[in-house]
Amino acid sequence: MKKMVSLTLALSLCAAMFAGCSSPSPSTSTPSETASDPGSAASSAASQEESSGAKEFENKELNIAIFEGGYGPEYWEEIVSQFETTYGVNVTMQISPTIGDIIRPQIVAGNVPDFISMNDNDTSGLISSLIRENALMDITDVFEGPGLEDTSPLKDQVLDGVLDTAKCSPYSDGKIYLAPFNASPLGLVYNKTLFKENNWELPETWDEFFELGDKAKEKGIALLTYAGQYPGYMESLLWPAIASAAGLETATDISSYVPGSFSSPEVMAVLENIQKISTGGYLMEGSVALNHTQSQTEMMMNKAVFIPNGNWMEGEMKDAPRAEGFEFGLTTAPSMKAGDARYVMTSVEQFSIPAAAQNPELAKEFLRFLYTEDSVKLFAEKAGGIYALKEATEWSKDYVSEGVYSMNEVYDVGNSMVFGFAALPEGCKVTPRDEVFQSIADLMNGAMTPEEWSQKVEASFTEVANTAG
Amino acid sequence: MSEKSKRPAKKKGGLHRLPVGFICVCVLPTLLLTITFTIIPTVRALWMSLWDSTALSLNPSFVGLDNYIYMFRDEYFLQALANTGKLLLVVPIITILFALILAFILSQTKLRERGLYRTIFYFPNIISMTVVGIIWSFVFHPTMGIVNTFLQFVGLGDLARPWVGDSATALWCIAITLIWQATGYYMVMHMASMDGISNEIYEAATIDGASSFRKFISITIPLMRDIIGITFVLAMSGTMNLSFVLSRVMTAGGPNGASTVLLQYMYQQGFVNGNFGYAMAITVFSLTISVILSLISRCLSSRGEEKR
Known about the structure:
The complex is a heterodimer.
Chain A: H1 2-17, H2 31-34, H3 38-51, E1 61-67, H4 74-87, E2 90-96, H5 99-108, E3 115-118, H6 126-132, H7 140-144, H8 154-157, E4 178-191, H9 192-198, H10 206-218, E5 222-224, H11 235-246, H12 248-255, H13 265-279, H14 292-300, E6 304-310, H15 313-316, E7 328-331, E8 343-352, H16 360-370, H17 373-383, H18 392-396, H19 402-407, E9 415-417, H20 432-444, H21 450-468
Parallel strand pairs in A: 1-2, 1-3, 5-6, 8-9
Antiparallel strand pairs in A: 3-8, 4-6, 4-7, 4-8
Helix pairs in contact in A: 3-4, 3-17, 4-17, 11-12, 11-13, 13-21, 20-21
Chain B: H1 2-16, H2 20-48, H3 66-71, H4 75-108, H5 114-122, H6 129-139, H7 146-153, H8 170-194, H9 199-207, H10 212-223, H11 225-251, H12 262-272, H13 276-307
Helix pairs in contact in B: 2-13, 4-8, 4-11, 5-8, 6-8, 6-11, 8-11, 11-13, 12-13
């Protein structure tokens, strides 16, 4: 008996060691299906047609580094093999969720990849370092020039208002250093079924927003929850609200740290409304302590009406419990007055070519190749994402999931806007983005007023200006 | 006299006959590994902290001590420093105290289930820190966490709060988790050392009518002064390192930096903001603090020894 007990204990100790190793990633099993997929057969046939007209390149070696995120590796594996057959070149691909950490030592050692695809919230600091060090190649010529199929200039094929933002031209000098990859709308995610059941209308103005909050309160539902631990998610509410209340130019000024831009009366009105979410009792209790998945789960259980998030939430939460009949919908931040222009924040991830790339010409061709119709469709089919091209939504609609497609309807409510902070000057140690979002926790807890919030952000803008000299 | 002086000479001759070549071969791999993986990186960190370099260090400029000077103007750094200080003040002491008490109970009383308890108390140590962090973030979960549910159940619902989201409590949630996680480990170390104390001393004390508490204070603690000193230093360095993992998993350093610790701020500046030079300055500073603290506590415990 005693032996049994100690054996059980020893075994459970061993088992506990592996507690962190569970939940195998489902995406790894899919590549084998790729070959037999009829959809991809069609697209590869199309690319073979093209091959007769493909350019010849002297240097046939291309090194690319790809961030493997929620979109999985299948798209990249497929598009790379298509590019190889079309151009008769050899592509070496490194793809990993920690690609930044992998290629950083390579870059320092002088072994620079020709092409980088990096996620938006790159935690390795690689892209921001490359930007600060002026180590990216100017790729304006690619966008001035024609696309591979559609021979109009590529810059006209890209979604409006993307290329001229700091996301693509980080030095605000009109030159493009980063090419847009996918475009996904951000905003307030809600449950369509919940709205139907209660005959609620989507709010257009802040007043309607809070009225809806009062109605929801009677049903025991909070108006809003958010990932309190990662207040950066609030961007999909904050920036569109500011753009609507104070104009798109103000948002642009904020993104380039113009002193005074975060304290105008129009901006203050928005900040006060953000605070009212908490002081008026519209914030789900405990939100400040939740991480992103916890808050998303609460929202999907109908504990809150809205959550600031993006169209990837459907994929991210596909195994999560939810209220019966839950259906994804997306709307955007309210405006001050009825009839005011409203904006939808579009998240854009980027491609880039390092200045020290060995084979920049082939890398640029690869970039053009990615913007072709087949590539866009393949991306929609394999990854469920939509490229940042004007035609992309149309091309992708047969392939992406219903939730993603219906969340794109948010562009009927407001115009697309892209927000990305400009590159910080070298040697700058403050991060205005953190000052903006980290303060939200204190604001929601009542430890900070909107005035203090705005002063804190303005102080960081001033410091950025001082560092830049 | 002459005989006496001969003896040491003989010993010296013995030393010469040591297999010096063999010793060198044995020491060499460790020496090389230490130099490559400990000494060179430390020196490089020290060197880099004097530069204004980014994650790539393509064109850094020499800034001297600027990074260190900026550190003390940086309110987030000072906040992280204060948070680390608070944890260092509280966590090691409570951890070692609990570990001692538990070890004393388990080794001095005749509990039948002591094997079971020992295993259970040691359990948290085997679980990966990330998992520990996730488990405890659910304990403190504002709506379905056991803490708030329990408070409501016993009618103290007013006390319930979003523990890890409140700047007053977030850091202490991490402290509690750290203590829970480390106590078992030090308990096992203390038990091993307690088993080395002769039972006769305890028996004599029992005959003199000493209570268990008296025995703990007057026999166990003085005889274990050495091991307590060592475990205390270990607990301090553990607190310094592991608080980073927990604060990353449980609170993400929030709310508004209220639970950010030094190493986390270093990570933030180095890997998120790409300020490698500044991050290295923070690292060097943290290293200095750790070394000073461990020196102090070693001094204290060895001074106690001399007194004895």
